[in-house]
Amino acid sequence: MGESHAEANFRTDQETWRVRLRSAACAKQVLGAGVLLGDGLVLTCAHVIRIPGTDEHLPSVTVEFPGTGGAAGTGLRAVVEPHHWVPRADDHSGDLALLRLAGPPPDAASATTLHRLPAIWNRRVHFAGYPSRITGGKWSEALIKGNGGPGDEWVQIDPIVEADTLMRRFSGAGVVDNRTGRVIGIVVSKLDSERDGAHYRHGYMIPTATVIKHLPLVRDRHATGRQVVPATLTADPATPGPDRGFARWLTRWLAGDETMADVEIAFVREADKDAALALHTTLTLADRERSPRTSVAGPAPNGDGGVPRAGSLDLAVDVRGKTPAQVADEIAEGMGLDGPGPQPVPERIAADALPLTTVIEGVDEAVRPVETVELLHTLARHGGRLLLVFRRHDSPALDRTRELLLDPDHPERRLERIGLRIGLLARTEEHARDLRRRARSCVRPLPSVSRYAPDLELKAVRLAADPERGATSFLVKLSYVERTVEAALLEAETGHRTLARQLARHQELRGLLDAYGARLAAHRISEAVAQEQREAQRLLTGGPCEPAEAERAVDRFVRAARTALEELPGGPEEARR
Predict the structure, then answer these.
(1) Strands 114-115 and 223-224, how do they pair?
(2) Are strands 306-307 and 154-159 parallel, antiparallel or unpaired?
């Protein structure tokens, strides 16, 4: 994957920040592992110290320091730090706890920090747990396999050999990157599965970014490494901008849409505040550390399309006003290639750049834009996916980007992609119109259905015949048309979804009305609820009605029907017949 230098020759005996947790009530009971941070704090998983069957934690635990030579049973008491208990939710997200020691740790123990590092495929890591009967510790190595787990909060780690299989009481163990020797998360779970007769074992870690999202004290004082998205490129994810087409286009690229290229370009003019807000909101959602807890791939809360997977972005760099050297420093830090070394930073990137998904904003406003593009070319050569965001349409950096980073057939592929999306738009609009015709007799008011496809089909024809098709300016036109198509498709999908939901609900209400009507008739008690039944029947069969009004009427009828059925001589049992 473009990595050439050897892994660090680390010494596990120097990892004296590793701790073992025991029950304070039963000294023989090992609970799991943890990581000693500064200020007398210990990080672990919430389920390690949870009282079984509850969401409450043990009042205290004993923390031991096996790496310092201390004997078992000579540990320190620790309690949960206020506001830093995050029990595992129903979807298994969270599951973190921060403990505070009752006294200073042994002199031989050294605190550590958590480091932000992208989840790189097949990156080697190691950790140690304390399974039953091996309380001195068991070491294991694993390979990072990518994002996963609840809400994309976790990272999958697969044992390298059978002996590395995760066991119970590995939870909370610090995961160390073999390349840099930095702690990049904690073990949280193991999973054994059978498929086609084969036995598969893998585990999960909670990466630093997820820990930081849940535990503010760790974020503020005990984390290192560059944030995926700098403050200048963030926005409140609860207030998405009106340029929904651009946001969805970017989300598709972050998801690795097979019709999109690994290297793409986009344009956000300085005056285009809507596009800038859409860009920054999407980047924030794609950053595991900054995204809301429930940010996963799928429909947005308002039904306006999709939101990116948390963790789908590895690095975002604002290069405006920065020299190539400054840009290189930021990229190296984001890749974990920073720190002292025998080579200058650009040479390190050229030799060992990681294949990250990276967004670069303000390429044409860098101090030396063309040199910046040449630096970014190094990332692409190492398998990185790049989105270059420009402010101006006439930048020399845009010409250099086309020469170095874009495939020769990029304009043709993008034009073909626009045609495919317009075709999908046309079909979606037609289906929405068909639903509207069906809903007209039973639902009101009905959402309008757009007809953007014909105009956009004409625009695509004009693009195909554009005399500037071979020029860089043609890329600008393609970018804006593609975003327009995406916005139109979002509107069509929203209308189609609303109509389908209204029709389905109308049919569901009709089903409830008929089902309870039949049960009442079977027991000859229809007259008891005749008024409620007639009103619901009138609304659902007498022409277009407002769904909310029909829902209220059916609800009144169903409640009355249930009461009448429960008053039968046989009671609830008779009512169910």
Answers:
(1) parallel
(2) unpaired
Work out the widest C-alpha separation in the chain, in whole angstroms.
92
Rounded to whole angstroms, what are the CA distances from 491 to 69, 240, 257, 557?
65, 16, 20, 36
Using the Cα atoms of residue 339, residue 324, residue 223 and residue 169 in order, give the sign of their dihedral: negative
Q: How many residues can be counted in the chain? A: 577
CA distance 359 to 446: 40
Token couple for 277: 């807000």
Instruction: In whole angstroms, give the CA distance from residue 480 to residue 264.
Output: 13
Return averaged pLDDT per consecutive 10 residues of the chain, 577 residues in all: 49 86 87 94 96 91 86 81 91 90 90 94 92 80 87 88 76 93 91 52 90 94 94 85 89 95 95 93 93 53 63 96 96 87 87 94 96 96 96 92 95 96 97 95 91 97 92 93 96 95 95 92 83 92 92 94 84 54
- Please give the backbone phi and psi of residue 139, each rounded to the nearest 5 degrees, phi first: -90, 145
Residues near 569 by Cβ (< 8 Å), separated by ≥ 6? Answer: none
Q: Round to whole Å and give the CA distance between 251 and 89.
A: 27
What's this model's pTM, rounded to 2 decimal places? 0.87
Beta bridge partners of 50: 57
What is the Cα–Cα distance from 356 to 383, expressed in whole angstroms?
A: 8
Closest CA to 345 of 359, 363, 325: 325
Distance CA 49, CA 56 (A): 9
Cα 440 to Cα 445: distance, rounded to the nearest angstrom: 9
Per-residue confidence (pLDDT) for residue 538, from 0 to 100: 93
Q: Which long-range contacts (CB under 8 A, 24 or more apart) does 256-263 make?
A: 256/385, 259/417, 259/420, 260/417, 261/406, 261/407, 261/410, 261/413, 261/414, 262/380, 262/384, 262/385, 262/386, 263/380, 263/385, 263/386, 263/387, 263/388, 263/405, 263/406, 263/407
**397-403 long-range contacts, Cβ below 8 Å, gap at least 24?**
397/363, 397/364, 397/366, 397/369, 397/370, 397/372, 397/373, 398/265, 398/363, 398/364, 398/472, 398/475, 399/472, 400/369, 400/370, 400/373, 400/374, 401/265, 401/363, 401/373, 402/472, 402/475
Q: Please, which residues have CB within 8 angstroms of residue 502's CB and are 6 or more apart in sequence? A: 439, 443, 446, 547
**In a 3-state reduction of DSSP, which class is residue 301?**
coil
Does residue 10 contact residue 27 with C-beta atoms inside 8 Å?
Answer: no
